[in-house]
Design goal:
This protein has about 160 residues and is mostly beta strands. It contains two helices and seven strands, in the order H-E-E-E-E-E-E-E-H. Helices cover about 5% and strands about 40% of the residues.
């Protein structure tokens, strides 16, 4: 069975339009470093909870997290699956050999009023150019949210 990967849930047009790229952050939830021996596509698995999240209740839909790698914006991640610890897998992109730092921050301006995100663990998986999955990861499509939907919780990817 193959897995379809998407680079990000909220990128590109939103980042350029300042809808999400302008900091509206709350507190830093997690910082994790990873070191690559060679250039690689990097997957991150964030183990998270979202106390107060309930897609069916207004003001509780989702917590929005901002992911930055090496101080640069990477993407936003919706936490939607409630209080149980759940794994959220994201493709961070291609990085050169060496040390890197992932910073996860709550985005209070984009989160539902009563939804709070929490990250307990982050694991990284590097896929190098010699591995069969590398080409698929390198060419994974990018998903965009429509700018007029941010904060309305109508474009959260269901994949």
């Amino acid at each position: 069975m193959s897995t379809l990967w998407f680079r990000a849930s909220l990128l590109g047009a939103l980042a350029c339009s300042s809808v999400l790229s302008a900091p509206r952050e709350g507190r830093a939830l997690k910082q994790e470093s990873f070191t690559l021996k060679e250039r690689a596509e990097v997957l991150a698995t964030l183990t998270a909870t979202c106390p107060g999240c309930d897609w069916g209740v207004a003001g509780h839909e989702a917590a929005l997290l901002r992911l930055d790698v090496d101080g640069r914006y990477s993407q936003h991640l919706f936490l939607t699956r409630g209080e149980s610890e759940t794994e959220y897998r994201v493709l961070l992109g291609s990085f050169p050999a060496g040390p890197h730092l992932l910073t996860v921050t709550s985005d209070v301006g984009g989160s539902a009023k009563f939804a709070k995100g929490s990250i307990s663990h982050v694991a990284f998986h590097a896929i190098t150019p010699g591995e069969p999955e590398f080409q698929a990861m390198a060419l994974a499509p990018i998903l965009y949210a429509r700018p007029n939907t941010v904060g309305h919780f109508t474009d959260a990817p269901l994949i």
